[in-house]
Amino acid sequence: MKWFSFLVLFLLCAQDSLTQKLYVWCPKDQEIKARAGFLNHDTINLSIFDGRILTKNSKIECDANDILSSLALIIKQAYPSAFINVLGDSGYYADPSLDRITLKIGIAAFHAGFGLDISVGIGSFGGKFAYGAFPKGEWNGITGYYVRLYDNRSGKDQKFTSSISKVSSKPNMWGYKTAKDCLNTTYIEANQELLFFIDNNLTK
Question: Would 10 be classed as within a structural domain?
Answer without folding.
Answer: no
